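FAQ: What does the model actually see?

It sees only this:
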Amino acid sequence: MKLPDGPRLPALVQTLKIIAQPLQFLESCAHQYGDIFTLQVLGINSPPVVFLSHPEAIAAVFTSEGDKFELGQVTHVFRPLTGTRSLIAQDGQRHQRLRQLLMPPLHGKRLPTYGTLIREATLEQTAGWVPGKTIKIRDYTADIALQVILKVVFGLQSGSRYLKFKQLLKPFLDRVNSPFNSLQFFWSPLQQDWGAWSPWGSFLRQQQQIDQLIYAEIAERRQQPIGEDVLSLLIAAQDEAGEGLTDQELRDQLITLLLLGQDTTASALAWAFYWIHRSPRVLARLRQELANLGPDPAPLTLAQLPYLNAVCQETLRIHPIALISQPRVVREPVELEGYCFPPGTILVPCIHLAHRRSQVFPQPEQFEPERFLQSKFSPYEYFPFGGGNRSCIGMALSLFEMKLVLATLLSHYQLELTEGKPVRPTRRGITIVPSEHFELTMIGKGQPQKPTLEHPLKQIR
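And it is asked to produce this:
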């Protein structure tokens, strides 16, 4: 059957391009081939991978009956990291069961209980900021996001295990998100344990140390009264048959929340600080909205601010949590965009390209939070956390965290962009981050006395 057009480059070259230069490669393909195109990025003999960005095609994928698609082997990249019992590695009833158990601690009424911990973690990590200090903001957002994971998800506040987790997790996350390790996860022949000195062997030993801590924490917490953190609530959770999560299932969910929640939120926050401080009008309007609340507003009040929400939404439009939604493998023939895709074809809703369709988002390269105050977008036009039954389980917590960190730091500090080289998007693991030289300078504490909306809007591409 005829597939949509795509580049004729060898599969290895296409794979290296999408690993090393994903934005440029995807955008060039969309420019040349349109809203649907085919890539070979999973190996020479692997099935074709079809990227979609038109809302109608994405809606068809997200709303199709479950028996039309399966995961197949598309999550194999994450399995050495998250384990085989992770939510993202499950399909069908097993996926539905895990999702039902995970949802309550990460959504709804539970979120406000995490607000104080998020604000405390934010101020704790930035306590050393003084006027004149040059700040690599993503380093701080990464530390804040890690603290939030440890406190809110793992339920760790202090003690030797808490300190050991902090000591091990940062180098582990840096290793996982480095360019070479990204290649290792894509290419299984590189996953060879030749001892502690070898790249894969070193990774496995780091992972084993972290696993020992996680299993020790799970065993200890099973003997304690149920707390308010995510781990405690997951230990207490039971499915319809009255069965809870096994130790391995708990471990795999915790690692998944860590790996797919910490770095992504840190990167989204870094981009938010970048765009806010590139746009004086946006910064002034946001400060005004925060100032209107008075001192020490409740976390839920902050999270419901319209303009703060619009700023976060626009940040996630330009720089979504991930470039793609979870791929679907065709189980039985599917018709989309005038093509009939045979079983085995991999369909990929592309968040990055969908968010840049000028038909939906005029001037898509411009940072304009007002578009989210003036219009509502369908979940097939705007879906920064993926969509359908495979959307990110932690999206509510991530967005809540973004809002509280932004509101807390903008209320306590005055920052400005440090002049330097142009900031470019750079790949880090599954996320796209501002280039290394992006810095802010702390120029004062608290909010300016009279926020103004008179500054002209400055934009860059």
